Every structure is written in structure tokens, then in C-alpha cells.
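Aim 2, interim progress. The first record below pairs a target sequence with its C-alpha cells.
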Amino acid sequence: MTADPVTSQQLSPTAEVPATVRASLSPSRAADFKTCPLLYRFRSIDRLPEQPTVEQARGTLVHAVLERLFDLPPAGRTPRAASDLVAPQWERLVTEQPELAALFTGDGEARSTFLRSAAGLLQGYFAVEDPRRLEPAERESLISAVVDEELLIRGYLDRLDVAPDGALRVVDYKTGGAPREAFEARALFQLKFYALVLWRTRGVVPRVLRLLYLKDVEVCDYTPDADELVRFERTVVALWRAIEVATAAQDFRPRPSRLCDWCSHQRLCPSFGGTPPPFPVGPNPADPLRDSRSQPTPPGTDE
């Protein structure tokens, strides 16, 4: 599939969510619970704010540029065109997310260095793909499916390619370095999540799940099969049931690991001598509308 031009194709829309659905889960929040139940609570139930880091902002910017790059005609999708999109896309993001502006308040040189670093990552993209030969079927697309009759699983695809024979390729851009084992497992978990949604809604198991690591110019391809996705679906359902049990008991315990280095909530974590806030009462944290993509993820695992 790698060598063949990929063409755009109309895909069946995701079915409406049945009224019986009680909860939703995204790959980011599912990975949070797997990594540390208390982190899941802080992000999904307490909804604690997190100031974006420079690394996260860079990832958001690169994703935005790559999405807009495919608005250009094929011949115009050049490294220079991508570089020209960096500054205007940053201005758009700052307008939409004013908290990003705080990263470089009064420091024009730091901002310029940041924009140059984003442009450098985009050069890495052109080293692994030629966008002039691609016509993605979907970009930054929200997909969802209902599993176990009551759990809505959903997430945003960076890109979905559809080959002339109908084969699907899920592409995810990573702006961190080539991953260590812990990050690689999280990234593949995310892509299997997408593969399960596509299989359940469109009846096609993606032929390729592709991770593009732009910093180190590496490509990681993975080929799932239906049996594996059945097992993965059971894992997701079991994970959600564990979340429901923890919610009912108001018991989300920390799970210290090397990922704690990137956590924004150490001052509230018992593992670091902190005390979590009182468990919130009010809107049901399992409400489908309360699980979102907006929370950041650790460097190298951007969604």
C-alpha cells in the first residue's frame, strides 16, 4: 500500500449514538487510566486545568500545518509551502487558544526559535512521505462507535487514507523523538483504538496503522487483524468497567512511574506528599459529553 497513490473516497458516516449509551471513552483518557488512575481522575473527573508546555504546543502547531497542507493542490504541497504555513497557523491557534500566548510573553526570540523548530519537524515529514502523491480521505476526523451496547468509544484521526481497493491506512503524526517502550505501547494502543472504531462502523479492518515520527524521521507500521481487535475490544470494555468501579468507590489511586516527570499535578498527588481535592459531586463524570480531546498528553504521545 505504501507505494500506491491513495485517492479520496466517500465513507459511510458513523451511526447515531443510541439512547442507551451511558458513557464515552477516548484513547487518551483510556491511556491515562492505564498509566495512572489518579491522573484519569484529575483530567476527566476533576477537570483540573493544565498549562500547555512548549512541546505540546509544538505538536499542536505541526498537526495544524499538516492538516492545512492538504488543502493545497498536490503540486503545491512542498517543504517551502509547509514552512510558510507555520506562522499563520500559530497565530490562528493563539487566537483560538489564548493560553498558548503565555508561553512566549515578551520573548520574541523564544517565539522565533519555537517556530523554527516546528518548521524543522515539518522537514522531517517530507523525508518520510511525499504529500503530492496523497489525497487523504479524512483529516482531523472525529470517529466513534458503540461497544458493549452502552460505551461510546471515540477519537480524532490525524489522517485516514483509502486506497483504490478500499484498504484503510490510519496515519498518526508524532512530534517527539523515536519512542521508548512505554511511549510506543501507548501510541499503538491509540491506533488500535481507532482501528476498532473503523472496523465496527465500516466493516473494514485497517490494513496499516502508521506512526510517523517526524523528529527522528522514522516510520512504524503495524498490521492488525480481526481476532486482535476482538481481544482489544474486550480490553477496552474491561478498562471502562474498572473506571466505573473506581468512580463508584471514589477511589482513584496513583501509580508512580517515570511518566510522573511530565505530570502537571504532582502537588496534589499522595505519591509526592500532596492531597487530592474532594471528590466532585454533580454532573455524572461518565456523561458522554464530558470526555474530550482537549486534555494534553505527555511529550512524544500527542494524540
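The second target in this work package is listed in the same format:
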Amino acid sequence: MREYLLGLQARITSAIAEIDGRSFLSDAWEKEPGSTLQGSGVTQILEGGEVFERAGCGFSHVSGPRLPPSATQHRPELAGAPFEALGVSLVFHPRNPYVPTVHMNVRMITARPQGGAAVSWFGGGMDLTPYYGFEEDAVHFHRTCAQALAPFGDDKYPRFKAWCDDYFCLRHRGEQRGVGGIFYDDLTELGVEGGLALTRAVGDAFLHAYVPIVQRRKDTPYGERERQFQLYRRGRYVEFNLVWDRGTHFGLQSGGRTESILLSMPPLVRWAYDERPAPGTPEHRLLTEFLVRRDWL
């Protein structure tokens, strides 16, 4: 899993750097001796690019003496068990408002309860957050996700798509974060080998799902109106990550590296009191036709 994840990180950042024309900064880190969490990782970050205003892709491989509450809410029998976790997580914030933000994560966690056998599970997925909605982009993204999961059973895409819609929801606003994608967590039903194979299929599908959309939209002309709406919608992204995201909570609760955990934050964002797009505008269409639960296939 470690070898696969490091290769995945390298493939993704190389492809994105080629599109942008600017290289990622690579920041290798290691937890200090005596820290609650032990391990190391590599955070790769691109800021101020031509295409991506901020793009972060992090690999981490850590171990700790006790699973944090965010990891055991569905596994109370493992509360307090020593654990090992490794994964790749990325969030890319484009400069052009017509290019959607994207998130992808794949991970594996193993807990070793005292007196019991080791228990491993997988999680991950990818989701798309547009600022201006395009049917063909959402359909392409979902179709690629469905194709990646097809070898593992007809139930996987519908189930993981619904799971994504349920998870990436700003429940305090009753609003979807984006057009969704796929999400899964606590996956054990396929065994270790099957879980690894599915997780690799998801990771391998990411560039196929996202890069064609970037290429299609990155040169679209835009003005201050579109930029301000993009910054406003980025505020929703920040709200979700800080209030609801289990990955953020897991990292902070377990004593993870804060700078790497928060690489998902956009560089610029704005909030406005009760701002509502006028009916009939593209901004209103995003809210009413795209930030809703839909069958995109």
C-alpha cells in the first residue's frame, strides 16, 4: 500500500504540474521523537500557479497508541487500540471559476487491539465542487467513477455515490457541497486484498475523471463577478472541512501535522451575510440544478 500511494502521489502531481507549468514544492516531514503520533510523510504543494491557485497532495504513514474518536465512531470495540494509518489526500483549488475544485482521498487503517487479531479497513473516494455547473462535466466525472468500481460489483457505484451525497453535505445549511462523486469508509467486506484492489482502482481513476474537465474549462474567460462568486462558494468548502470532515478531525485529534492536514484550505475566500443569487442567473442555476442530489448517469 505504501509503495502504491507514493507512486500515485508522484503520478498525480506530475500530471498537474504539466498542466499548470509550475512544479510542486515537496516537503518531506517526520514526527519528532516523543510525539503522540509517530511516522512520516511528504506534502506536495503548488501555489500561485497559472491554472491552480493552490493544489495540495499529501502522503502520510503514521502510527499511534490509541485510535482517536473520529476513527472508532462506527467501531466502538476498537476504541483505544494502537493503530497504523497511511493514505494520500488531495484538494486542488483552480484559479479560473469555471474549473471545479476537486478532492480525492485513499487510505488504509490497521488497528491492533490487545489480545485480538489486527483489523484493517479502507476508505476513500473523490468528489467534484463546481462554481459554475456544466452537465457534461458532472456526467463525465460520475461515469469515470462508475467505471472504476464496476469490476467490484454492480452495487458499489450506487452505494458509494449515495454515501458521497450523504457525507459531503453541509448539514447546518441543508446544502450539498458539490455534485458529489463516490465515498466509502470502514470497507472490510472485500477482505484486505479486495479492499486494496478497489482502493487502487479509485486512485488510478482520478486523473481520468478530472484532467479532461480542467482542459475543457481552464481558458474560459471570466470577470470579477465570477471571481467573487467563486470566493463566496469557497467559504462553504472551508465550513465543511472544519465542521464535518472526519479526515480533518482524525488528523487533528490524533496529533497529526497541522500544516499538512489543512492543505485543503483555499488561499482566498469570502463570506457574506445571507447572500442569495438572483433567479435566472448562472449562479442561481448552480444552487438549484447542480448542488442537489441527482442521478448523473
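The CA atoms of residues 133 and 226 lie 12 Å apart. This observation will shape the mutagenesis plan for the next reporting period.
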